[in-house]
Amino acid sequence: MKDLTKLTDRIFYVGVNDRTKHLFEGLWPLPLGVSYNAYLVCGERTALVDTVDACFTGRLLANVRERLGDRPLDYLVINHMEPDHSASIAAVRQAYPAVRIVGNAKTLQMIEGYYGIACGTVEVKEGDVLDLGGLTLAFCMIPMVHWPETMATWCAEERTIFSGDAFGTFGALNGGVTDEQLDVEPFWEEMRRYYACIVGKYGQPVQRALAKVAPLDIAMICSTHGPVWRREIARVVELYDKVSRYEGEPGAVIAYGSMYGNTEQMAETVARGLAAAGVRPIVVYNLSTADVSQVLRDIFRYDTLVVGSPTYNGQLYPPVDALLRKIAERCIPYRRFACFGSFTWAGAAVRRMTEFAEGMKWPVVGAPVELKQGYSTAVEPACRMLVDALVEDMKR
Ligand SMILES: Cc1cc2nc3c(=O)[nH]c(=O)nc-3n(C[C@H](O)[C@H](O)[C@H](O)COP(=O)(O)O)c2cc1C
């Protein structure tokens, strides 16, 4: 049988799939699972690059043992300290007491703080090279992608970058490991969703990291989540470049909240108007039922966002409020933005959405539509004017 975990003669996949966890970080659904990737690099000396989530420590150690046999593990390189990658550090040290743990100063401080390990470590800085004998590992700091200690590790001889969470995606690895061995189609949407939810706040650090790795002649990207990329490197880098520039492509997201259907009816009217004007694609989300990770994914993807909310206890309807907070946290520099809202006795939703846009420094397109009490055709001219203003702005 072909050995799919042998990536090259000297680099081996020893990661695991997680199809058990429902929510990544306790927040983001995992309908296709997720993989925690770790890699063995074998020169005259051996190095394990990153570890896996605590639930899969045993599997990781078995994978490493199977591959190394009686050989010692000389180094454990830690690119990223988030526990889905670092939680097995202590177990690796227990299994291989002589292993030296390699990380930058921030990483080593975190290893001590999380796992109480302070000895047998090697501190590395930008550009330092670890000689494995016939193979080298060079370290490149990529802070805030997406923790401050994050670094990438470059193996020049194999033209391979171990990129941490950069270029990562949700989705377990179904049989294959590399993009040549897998159906990669489901991963593109999952990569956008992963980026929007996990890394989305850190567009500038991702841009700086991309600039750093640009001169490298990369033959293989070994990220900590998702396929090992070989054939699709250009597409992966292009996608990460695009999303980290917050560049929206033509298309509209309409995200609304509604308890009794009146705000929802306005959302339908606005969506119908945009569709009649030829806007494509249009994605409409009821925020009470939508998976917010998909909403964020599409807000990162498309250039237009229209939000609708009832007034609720003098505030925004809570799911709308929650979405707007998530958008604000991610510092998205620009989206074409319009809004509509409803109330019964004292409206606040439209005012709050307008304040949100001001806070984001997004100009509000058109006059926000504010519905008092029940939906009727009387509100439709205002909705049409909102649509006209959006369509006019799209033409610019
Ligand atoms: C718990 C609750 C709190 C509300 N608070 C306000 C309010 O502070 N001011 C107001 O004018 N209307 C308030 N309303 C009325 C809603 O804004 C109104 O029912 C809603 O805008 C109708 O839109 P919908 O049919 O899309 O749910 C409240 C309704 C509920 C159920």
UniProtKB/TrEMBL annotation:
Coiled-coil regions listed = none
Start and end residues of each Flavodoxin-like domain: 252-391
- Gene Ontology MF term list: electron transfer activity; FMN binding; metal ion binding; oxidoreductase activity
Q: Which organism is it from?
A: Alistipes communis
Protein name, per record: Flavodoxin
Q: Which family does it belong to?
A: In the N-terminal section; belongs to the zinc metallo-hydrolase group 3 family.
CDD domains per the record? flavodiiron_proteins_MBL-fold (cd07709)
